[in-house]
Design brief:
Layout: E1 19-24, H1 31-39, E2 56-61, H2 65-74, E3 78-80, E4 83-88, E5 115-121, H3 137-168, H4 172-189, H5 198-202, E6 211-216, H6 224-233, E7 236-240, H7 248-258, E8 261-267, E9 271-278, H8 283-290, H9 292-296, E10 298-305, H10 306-312, H11 315-320, E11 325-327, E12 337-343
Parallel strand pairs: 1-4, 1-5, 3-9, 5-6, 6-7
Antiparallel strand pairs: 2-4, 8-9, 10-11, 10-12
Helix pairs in contact: 2-10, 3-4
Amino acid sequence: MAGLSNSVKDDTVIRMSKLSIGIVGLPNVGKSTLFNVLTKQKVNAANYPFATIDPNVGVVAVPDERVDKLAEMSKSKQTIPAVVEFYDIAGLVRGAHKGEGLGNQFLTHIKGTNAIVHVVRCFGGSDVVHVEGAPDPLRDIDTIESELILKDLEIVERALERVAGKARTGDKEAKEELANLEKVKSALEAEELLTDMPFARNMGLLMAKPQLFLLNGDESDITPALKQKMIDIGCQSLVVNLGKENAVPALIGKAYEILNLMSFLTTGEKETRAWTAPQGAKAPQCAGVIHSDFEKNFIRAEVVNWRDLLDCGSWVKARERGKIRVEGKEYVMLDGDVVYFRVGV
């Protein structure tokens, strides 16, 4: 089973959903090291501020043993994992929103990302230069968060100027937009996250994106005050020593968690592939991840848990043993479901 109905031609263009994450932090906190570990690409991680002067983009395969095992079972010609795009921008410094350093000009490169990974240096030592003289995780977190907030405020204030005139004329839509902008501005001035404000998310504001704090160091470097800081901010964190550990599985796993994502799978002789979709997505919406026409022309889905399919050894045997279920439009796809979509022409 390749996940497509027999009525769909082989040359149909397949649309994949894209997951993208921006990496932010002060210079020399481990951002480019993280990017190197993630992508195995050679980016400049020299020991001085502003070594990264161009935005680096890397496509990373999501580690998933299910894809490899299903591909082996199906003898697939291709194995295609889900992917994540990581954007590594130049290090931010205090005053970046006003043009200090080089990071500000690259903030636009992460405007379209789904989430932000904030790398925080927690290890000491003088062998790696720190832009503020010495690392202080609490201060450094406040510095970056302040710059993101100030950048968002610039965007919101420009939008307010644009909308205010229209609102004064009595334009209903402009008045509604103005009210939303004023709420967003108030939240930013109170240094609040905007993740629960759809209007702010639609604007692409940085503080509206889910954030994950990657604390670069050992567990012994994480002070009680830093632990409390993570609680106060209300974002998830991950402790990884980038000089010693492979951060890929844990980081991508956390990214899926904060974005409420899951993976369903398709498998057959042609290919085995993992697809990314929101938790709670129904079968037609998941079909739409593969191709927009599949959602419109959805008929039904044939679904089996990946472990059950492997235990049976083939789609045919799984059907014989009653492991394959026929689901309709209201079925909520689960992580690890292997699916064959039946769609009309």
